[in-house]
Specification:
Length: 368
């Protein structure tokens, strides 16, 4: 009986030992990656965007908190904009004033152009009439001179009396006065023509003044655009969709230009950041398929693609666990997730991944 009991006990020990051996072999086969798969360890990360204002100001409204999901263009923070708004209103008033001034200058310029043409034509016509009057007056005076000379000859010969001489002398004097008056009117008309000829120059002067006003309007318009841009900068919007992971300020605080207000991470562009030992870097290339595993979802893999391989090696970061701790030089690699499974992954999670270096190799669960 005792012999039988010892035999049964020995058989049980052998069975347990065999079972343990089989289980150990199965675990070893399960934990050792097949040829064509390369394991990597690291953390889930995402591209971080720091939200900061362009100008200094006081925070009057802070609309988000840590953990909030925001969309591109969503208002995150508002700064006090009273001073900027006043500057914008002043610039807009200057634009309106210059626009009214330019409209008045344009209307006056149209009138001046018409008046200049009319004045020049009238002056030229008046000068032509004055020239004709001067010629007639000169001709009449010349005739009176001849008549007076003949009368003097006849008087010396005794054919006419003193009265006739007086009449011809008086006529000569009057014609001389008329000639001088006609010459004066002619010179006056010529001056009017010269003045009228200055009209186009006055028009060009007014056109130059209009050009200056238009340039000032452009400057004022640029000032309005600058003030409007500064006013828009008082409202800080999300540059892209993501999740608020950190907040650095509170409503009522005064912040400087470039001071960080919020940190965003785009959860749609997560990646596993890890390191490969130098001897293994030659086995990978960009575009290789990979699968990422996290402890929160055991047995489930998330498809990823190797898109980044560092060009220079670095010493092993202390926070990264590598399989072979004897290797000190490593290369940073990033596996970008193709799907996030409705946001189940988040930055900071430890993760393991398998990179498939051969297409014909089946996926394995990473070694723990």
């Amino acid at each position: 009986m005792q012999t039988l009991t010892r035999r049964i006990g020995g058989a049980a020990v052998l069975a347990v030992a065999a079972l343990v051996g089989v289980l150990a072999w199965w675990m070893q086969q399960r934990s050792v990656p097949a040829d064509g798969l390369l394991q990597i360890n690291g953390r889930i990360e995402g591209d971080r965007v720091t939200i900061a204002p362009k100008t200094a100001g006081r925070v009057v409204e802070l609309r988000v908190h840590e953990g909030d999901v925001v969309t591109s263009g969503q208002v995150l923070v508002r700064l006090d904009d009273r001073a900027v708004r006043a500057r914008l209103e002043q610039a807009e008033a200057a634009v309106q004033t210059l626009q009214a001034q330019i409209a008045a200058q344009q209307a006056a310029l149209v009138v001046m152009r018409g008046e200049t043409a009319l004045a020049l034509n009238a002056a030229r016509n008046r000068m032509a009439a004055a020239e004709a009057d001067a010629r007639r007056a000169a001709a009449a005076h010349a005739q009176d001179e001849r008549d007076h000379a003949r009368a003097r000859d006849l008087s010396e010969q005794g054919f006419i009396g003193p009265q006739a001489m007086e009449r011809t002398g008086l006529a000569l004097k009057q014609s001389a006065e008329q000639r001088d008056a006609a010459d004066a009117l002619l010179e006056q008309s010529r001056q009017l023509v010269r003045d009228a000829q200055l009209g186009p120059q006055r028009v060009r002067t007014r056109e130059a003044e209009l050009a200056v006003s238009r340039a000032r309007l452009q400057e004022a318009t640029a000032t309005v655009a600058e003030a409007q841009s500064a006013l828009d900068d008082m409202v800080i919007r999300a540059p892209a969709g993501g999740t608020v992971v950190r907040r650095f300020t509170h409503a009522g605080e005064v912040v400087g230009a470039g001071a960080p207000l919020l940190d965003l991470i785009d959860l749609g562009q997560l990646y596993l950041k890890g390191y490969l030992p130098e001897p293994q870097i030659g086995r990978v290339r960009r575009g290789m398929a990979a699968r990422v595993h996290v402890d929160a979802f055991p047995g489930e893999g998330f498809n990823a693609t190797l898109r980044y391989v560092a060009s220079r090696a670095e010493f092993t970061p202390k926070e990264v666990q590598t399989v072979d701790e004897r290797v000190r030089l490593v290369y940073e690699v990033r596996l970008y997730l193709e799907q996030d499974a409705a946001g189940r992954l988040s930055p900071g999670q430890p993760a393991d991944a398998m990179i498939r270096t051969r297409e014909d190799v089946a996926w394995h669960v990473p070694r723990r």
